[in-house]
Automatic annotation (TrEMBL), chain A:
<dbReference type="InterPro" id="IPR008568">
    <property type="entry name" value="EMC3"/>
</dbReference>
<dbReference type="Pfam" id="PF01956">
    <property type="entry name" value="EMC3_TMCO1"/>
</dbReference>
<keyword id="KW-0812">Transmembrane</keyword>
<protein>
    <recommendedName>
        <fullName>ER membrane protein complex subunit 3</fullName>
    </recommendedName>
</protein>
<keyword id="KW-1133">Transmembrane helix</keyword>
<feature type="transmembrane region" description="Helical">
    <location>
        <begin position="119"/>
        <end position="143"/>
    </location>
</feature>
<keyword id="KW-0472">Membrane</keyword>
<comment type="similarity">
    <text>Belongs to the EMC3 family.</text>
</comment>
<feature type="transmembrane region" description="Helical">
    <location>
        <begin position="14"/>
        <end position="33"/>
    </location>
</feature>
Automatic annotation (TrEMBL), chain B:
<keyword id="KW-0812">Transmembrane</keyword>
<feature type="transmembrane region" description="Helical">
    <location>
        <begin position="32"/>
        <end position="51"/>
    </location>
</feature>
<comment type="similarity">
    <text>Belongs to the EMC6 family.</text>
</comment>
<dbReference type="Pfam" id="PF07019">
    <property type="entry name" value="EMC6"/>
</dbReference>
<feature type="transmembrane region" description="Helical">
    <location>
        <begin position="89"/>
        <end position="109"/>
    </location>
</feature>
<dbReference type="InterPro" id="IPR008504">
    <property type="entry name" value="Emc6"/>
</dbReference>
<keyword id="KW-1133">Transmembrane helix</keyword>
<protein>
    <recommendedName>
        <fullName>ER membrane protein complex subunit 6</fullName>
    </recommendedName>
</protein>
<dbReference type="InterPro" id="IPR029008">
    <property type="entry name" value="EMC6-like"/>
</dbReference>
């Protein structure tokens, strides 16, 4: 390996540890703030109804092989009948629901609040790190990377001969950003890992859920081949009993 | 640790599998927590012991393998009564703990070796 730089102990005390501690505290703060700011949204009756229909269809799919063929077919027709089946949504109505979702002021406000609560602390912390902690080597990552990462990891350091393992505090910030997700999910209970992509998917799920998943359920229900399991139960029971006896 | 995993009936003579979705999910969470926790601890150990480069990543895979073995042992080797497939307990969340591992590895390595 190249020469081993000796780094000042003060960097350890005043950069690495405070940065990590600050990020953990900000994460905890954001968790509590989002809990306080969560406005309770009265669920729309129509959406709840459609959600329950989907759940019923899904149960039918998973339990399909336990009921006699006629019963299964009767239920299937009830769901996917062209005229008044529960899962059948005429095309015109589909578009409407989507547009309505997005122009609903409450929904938009909630989405914005969630996005902001995610973005603002990150931006502020990043600016803080850049302002105070730039221009020196902050840490050494224990594995080597290629030269192409140099500009990304060593942005404040203008010496080109320093090993790429010595990184600036900006990269320590990013490392913390990704690595503390696991820690947050442990100490804050479930559902509070900082998965912004997951949350955004959940938000947009409110708008798309009724229309697309209804037709998806209908298709998957149509696909199912019914194979009644009851005749085989006797053989199964025999096998189990045989195993018990022998 | 794998508490809360009630018996789910899985019929082995034919393809019918019935699972209690809630218990399955809670078992998945147990796996996730175990892996995250162990990858953090493993990161600290790797840093203190001074692993660098490839050795550290090999250590990470070793830790994940130990997690898998530990979980299988806790499930008393009858994986099918707690999970729906082998892949779940072995491969799920394998790379999820990588970032936490690297963070704590870097942290411990720096504190101990470049102090």
């Amino acid at each position: 390996m190249a020469e081993d730089l000796v780094l000042d102990t003060a960097i350890r005390d005043w950069v690495l540890i405070p940065l990590s501690v600050v990020m953990v505290l900000i994460g905890v703060l954001r968790y509590f703030v989002s809990k306080l700011m969560r406005s309770y949204q009265v669920p729309d009756a129509k959406i709840v109804k459609e959600g329950q229909v989907i759940v019923r269809a899904r149960n039918l799919r998973s339990g399909a092989n336990f009921i006699p063929p006629k019963a299964f077919r009767a239920r299937r027709v009830y769901f996917s009948n062209e005229e008044n089946g529960l899962l059948f949504v005429p095309k015109g109505q589909a578009q409407n629901a989507q547009a309505q979702m997005f122009s609903d002021p409450n929904m938009a406000m909630d989405m914005m609040k969630k996005n902001l609560s995610m973005i603002i602390p990150q931006t502020l912390t990043f600016a803080w790190v850049n302002f105070f902690f730039s221009g020196f080597v902050a840490a050494k990552i224990p594995f080597p990377l290629t030269q192409r990462f140099r500009s990304m990891l060593q942005n404040g350091i203008d010496l080109s001969t320093v090993d790429v393992s010595y990184v600036s505090s900006r990269s320590w910030y990013f490392l913390n950003l990704f690595g503390l997700r696991g820690l947050f999910s442990l100490i804050l209970g479930e559902e509070n890992a900082m998965d912004d992509t997951q949350r955004m998917m959940q938000m947009s799920g409110f708008g798309f859920d009724p229309t697309k998943s209804l037709s998806a359920e209908k298709d998957s229900l149509d696909i199912i081949q019914h194979e009644w399991a009851l005749p085989k139960f006797e053989q199964r029971a025999e096998a189990v009993l045989r195993k018990l006896v022998s | 640790m794998a508490g809360g995993s009630e018996k789910k009936s899985s019929e082995d003579a034919n393809d019918l599998q019935t699972f209690n979705a809630e218990n399955l999910q809670s078992n998945m969470k147990v796996i996730y927590y175990s892996r995250t926790f162990l990858s953090i601890i493993g990161g600290v150990i790797a840093g203190i012991l001074g692993f660098t480069g490839l050795t550290g990543f090999i250590f990470y895979f070793l830790i994940m393998a130990i997690t898998s073995i530990g979980l299988i042992a806790k499930a008393k080797f009858s994986v099918h009564s707690y999970f729906d497939s082998w892949n779940r307990i072995i491969l799920d969340g394998f790379f999820g703990g990588l970032m936490s591992f690297v963070l704590f590895w870097t942290f411990a390595y720096d504190i101990v070796h470049i102090f």
